[in-house]
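We were asked to recover a plausible sequence for a given structure. The inputs and outputs are reproduced exactly as logged, with field labels preserved.

PROBLEM: sequence recovery
POSITIONS: 377
GIVEN STRUCTURE:
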């Protein structure tokens, strides 16, 4: 196998080397590399080794931006939820395309991706955002490898900054009582109460139907979500993960909330007659139509500000549910199942700030179990 290097201009080198055999004939490949001669020599050795090992792929003129668009429209469109697709598209359009989108997909290197992360750090973006982008970039490029576009994933050679551990914002129980009193006049008061009592996500609450509520066995089945997707309106979808499809046991107070909502809907339906829209959802607008998720979050913030409570997002009610249960001594596996986490490790990592007290209690229990009558240990 032959290869040569020719300088085109200062810092620019023309490589020519034997490519793979096609129809019994070996074809030459040419490309330009920037850097020192040593860089060019190393690149030539690497290219020839790839050809020798059978890993050479014909060049494609597709850019990173073109590839990302195709990935979103093919793989993501059939394997992810509309909400996830919207999130991926936002990350690609905001961060990937402006920085490395014009690079040809097969010329993309780990250095390019690392440079993207460095630029994001300089702009003051959080490590959490960069880590999430890294996951998206690595996942997308893994499919380029599967599809025969790349021989290896360049994202493997890039490292995002360490994700900072942030303690979840949460109210204490007295603050929750103040909030529940303050939200009594809100149309979504029952939804807020139910969120605290079940730990369900916003999309799970808005997507809950009466068909999936069993007031005889005191359980609800989380099998659907309802989210607002830009350009698509309200979209019915599946829970976040397979574990998110779950059955949640209801406390007596949670059952009372649902009974109250049912009675209110019956009254509203009688008052509005034909103007009532039958949707089957548990939490609706006053005329029976599905609630707009963003309207709930905005209303929640209005209640919080008016009551002058510490800042918290609607999702914080889910954290409150989990933290209260853990502090009450409920086993983390049970809490994990109620929340619909993919595994118990997610629960333990997310709510690690609650665990120190539990660890101390466990240590004391261990001493009691191993205690001997003569105290010789």
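RECOVERED SEQUENCE:
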């Amino acid at each position: 196998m032959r290869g040569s290097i020719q300088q085109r201009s200062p810092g620019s080198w023309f490589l020519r080397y034997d490519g793979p055999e096609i129809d019994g004939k070996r074809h030459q490949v040419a490309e330009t590399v920037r850097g020192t001669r040593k860089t060019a020599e190393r690149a030539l050795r690497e290219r020839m080794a790839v050809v020798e090992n059978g890993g050479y792929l014909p060049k494609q003129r597709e850019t990173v931006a073109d590839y990302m668009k195709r990935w979103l429209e093919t793989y993501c469109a059939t394997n992810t939820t509309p909400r996830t697709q919207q999130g991926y598209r936002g990350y690609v359009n905001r961060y990937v395309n402006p920085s490395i989108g014009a690079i040809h997909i097969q010329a993309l290197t780990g250095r390019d991706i690392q440079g993207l992360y460095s630029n994001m750090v300089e702009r003051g973006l959080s490590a959490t955002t960069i880590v999430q982008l890294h996951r998206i970039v690595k996942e997308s490029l893994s499919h380029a490898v599967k599809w025969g576009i790349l021989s290896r994933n360049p994202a493997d050679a890039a490292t995002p900054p360490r994700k900072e551990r942030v303690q979840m914002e949460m109210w204490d129980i007295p603050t929750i009582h103040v909030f529940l009193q303050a939200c009594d006049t809100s149309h979504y008061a029952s939804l807020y109460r139910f969120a605290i009592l079940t730990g369900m996500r916003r999309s799970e609450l808005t997507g809950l139907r009466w068909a999936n509520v069993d007031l005889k066995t005191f359980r609800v089945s989380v099998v659907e979500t309802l989210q607002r997707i830009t350009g698509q309106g309200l979209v019915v979808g599946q829970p976040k993960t397979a574990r998110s499809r779950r059955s949640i046991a209801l406390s007596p107070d949670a059952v009372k909330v649902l009974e109250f909502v049912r009675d209110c809907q019956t009254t509203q339906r009688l008052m509005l007659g034909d103007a009532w829209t039958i949707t089957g959802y548990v939490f609706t607008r006053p005329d029976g139509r599905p609630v707009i998720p963003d309207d709930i979050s905005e209303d929640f913030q209005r209640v919080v500000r008016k009551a002058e409570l510490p800042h918290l997002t609607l999702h914080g009610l889910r954290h409150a549910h989990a933290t209260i249960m853990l502090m009450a001594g409920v086993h983390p596996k049970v809490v994990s199942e109620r929340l619909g986490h993919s595994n118990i490790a997610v629960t333990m990592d997310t709510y690690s700030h609650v665990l120190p007290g539990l660890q101390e209690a466990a240590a004391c229990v261990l001493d009691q179990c191993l205690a001997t009558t003569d105290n010789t240990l």
